[in-house]
Amino acid sequence: MKRLVILFLLLAALSATAYFLIRNDKDNRKGVVTADRGFTVESFDDVKKIVIKHTKLQPLVFTREGKQWKVNNKYAVDPAVFVNIEKVLTGMKMLFIPSKAATPTIVESIKKSGIQVDVYENESQPSRIIFIGSDTQKGDGTYMILGGSVQPYAMHLPGLGGGLRSRFEQPIENFRDKFIFRDLSDEIEFVKVEYPKQNSASFIIENKGVSSTIKPLIANGLQLSVPENKRAISAYLSGFESLGAEKLMNDYPLKDSVIFKVPNCIIELKRKDGSTRTHKFFAYDDFESGTGNSRSPSEIKAQNRLFVLVDDRDFYTVQNRVFGDLFRGYQEFFSAAGAVNIKK
Hints:
Number of helices: 10
Radius of gyration: 31 Å
Strand order of the largest sheet: 4-3-2-1-6-7-8-9-5
Oligomer: single chain
Strand content: 25-35%
Number of strands: 21
Helix content: 25-40%
């Protein structure tokens, strides 16, 4: 009888132990699911605003305006860069849970130099707050703490093989849209193209649809014997639809030395809404090498890249493989026999 009682008690103890082990495992699994889902949003379409606060860089406030995003209510956002934020907020997963011994150091590091990311899915308050710490020692993930929690997790983006902090630790210049021209042809009133070092190639196109006209900028510069090529004019106006810069260079240390030079080309574009922008192009290769003096459209096209100053404010570099078709001379809109250069 005593043996039966002892066996019963032993079975009861084993059953209780198994129950608690199973329950604890379920709780741990639940914690893992919470870690994964708590940091991410189900659909980025539901996100209305993202605020990124750094310890050293200026705060960044991204707001959705239809399908577009703006940063700090001033600049359009470069979608090719901003998608890196989107991928993290929708797809990051837990890599591992740091050890108890490592946790205090990770938490303290986040307090001192962490990045706070507030994600808004409505206008009033953030749906989640994420504190981003340093990358893991192996560089395969990044430590993060979810707002309202004290437990750090190492998070990663499957397939990336690198840390995530750098995607949020960027100056505003890196997020700004780098499109120089995004103008549909039917939105353009006129385009004036000036070559200060070869005035005979300069021209202005007045956009009137099929009746668009082209004129030289200098009086008596060319004597024309045939009408202009309407297709060439139409194709040229269409070329302003989508042209992006290589890099924003406002902090370039030699910027003043560049813009004090005579531009190789100046393009002024006026839209039908009344807005006007002026773009001054400077030969990058000529400046960097200290040789050459590109004058004609063909010489400008031979450059690998160019500097461009927009409205005497923002300074960029652009690649000629993207912008080269803009550098055309007045004569190129007529047949070779139709334009006779009589004055330079």
